Amino acid sequence: MTETIDKISSLPDDILTHILSFLRTREAVQTCILSKRWRNTWASVPVLNFHVSDYDENKRWKFDQFVNGVLKNRGPVLLDTIISSRDVKNRYIEPPPIGWLHRATLLMPRVISVDIPYCYGLYPDLDFPDSVFSCASLEKLELFYFSDSGPPYLIQNSIALASLKTLVLYYLSLNDDFVQKLLLGCPVLENLKLWRCDLEISDISSNVLKEFTLDYCQHFQPMRICCPGLVSLSIISSMDTIGFIWLENMASLVNASINFSGRYCYEYNVDDHDRPNSKIFSGLSDVTNLELYFWLLPELKLKELWKDISNCKTFYNLKNLDFGAWNMVKDFSLVACFLEHCPVVKQLTLRLSERPGIINAARRDVPFQREYLEKVNILCEEDEELDSKLVGVLGGHVKTIGNINIRYTSYFVIDKLHGDGYRRCAETRRFLAC
């Protein structure tokens, strides 16, 4: 019988700990029974990945006991990443204790990612240890929460994260006080992502922020965004937020994606006549690449956007414009109006939808014609008659087109976000090439 040779145990410690960092921490700790060589290897793993769903709800004390035991018995090595995740199927009466995060911050982690299990009941405030928001080594912080009672408030007495570059918040309520402390206490914050949050925020102003993502958030008041150093902006929201987001002074902006949909709507206690006017496009005048998607918008909302575009500045830097996805054959005015403000655009992409249920505004005439457009991409469902009609409409506004590419596509829509939606919710609803 051939003797089995253990080659993996002869590997250097740094390689073994790197391999173990891809396992859940519970699995990594279990390797201690393999041999004396493995007894304490787990204690030097740079990544800790705890999974609360490994424990039944009535035995969650074991989860806390295990986490604290691991943190207490770690070797004298710095912690790179700590992750606390859960199974999307798990539901709890109350959120598990997160006090262990204080001990975790003493190990000076570079990354903290905490996914608090889905909870029944109302928890108006979410109380994280103060040390989470004062950890000097922290470069990336992700806080995910979900419940059937609405997002809890994230409230901190003070914030001092000198090294934080990336912050991701999911399903939390944020107010002006928190945001101002955040922007003042994070002097190198470059990437801010807010997903499905309730926002009671009037102003986000930062000279260091470079990437900002605002997806499916609910706005309770107009919010001004002024970030002169911003390079990338992504907004996916319901049609009811039109007028609640004001963009100003984005001189460094290169890429912007704006997606408004009538599919996801919130109940705002604001009469349409009292609603502030749209001020989206005036802040995008320096952008190089722009994506605009308007889905299932009623005429009133399209009028607001049309007025905003008509009053906006000239886009002297815009080279690539991507438009979708209403019935452009019947109403091309929004595209034509935008082209009128984009004298140097080289490539135009039109993502066309003729699906039933999409609401079309009354046709408007835009007496504008440009001399030349280098390239046009048309993405639509297979319909040669529709293609030719759109090319004809486009020809009424552009005398010469260098190259026209037509691709037939399938339609992709996220119909409903579930408890695990944050893993997918940044995906823009659009046409995707087959």
TrEMBL record:
Alphabetical list of PROSITE patterns matching this protein: FBOX
Any Pfam family the entry gives: LRR_At5g56370
InterPro entries given in the database record: F-box-like_dom_sf, F-box_AtFBL13-like, F-box_dom, F-box_SCFL_complex_component, LRR_dom_sf, LRR_FXL15/At3g58940/PEG3-like
Highest taxon in the source lineage: Eukaryota
Membrane-crossing residue ranges in chain numbering: none
F-box domain residues: 5-40
Name of protein: F-box domain-containing protein
